[in-house]
# Entry
Amino acid sequence: MKLPDGYRVQPYLEYVLKKDNDYKKIANVNQGIKCFPEKENEIKAFAKTNKTSFKKEEDVRRLIEFCNK
# Structure
């Protein structure tokens, strides 16, 4: 498919987390905090210290594992 001039395609990753029989989309740290509001400060510190990128599946996996502890 040829795109018009000035347009470009950029992949966008979105993760779905099941918590308490409810599904939540997580595409950034703030959405992760909404799933685990009781750990807001810890999540922010973890994401900053580990330079969590939501473009990398492994980074998101580590963040979720941290939240589940």
In short: The beta strands are 15-19, 22-26. The chain has a mean pLDDT of 90.
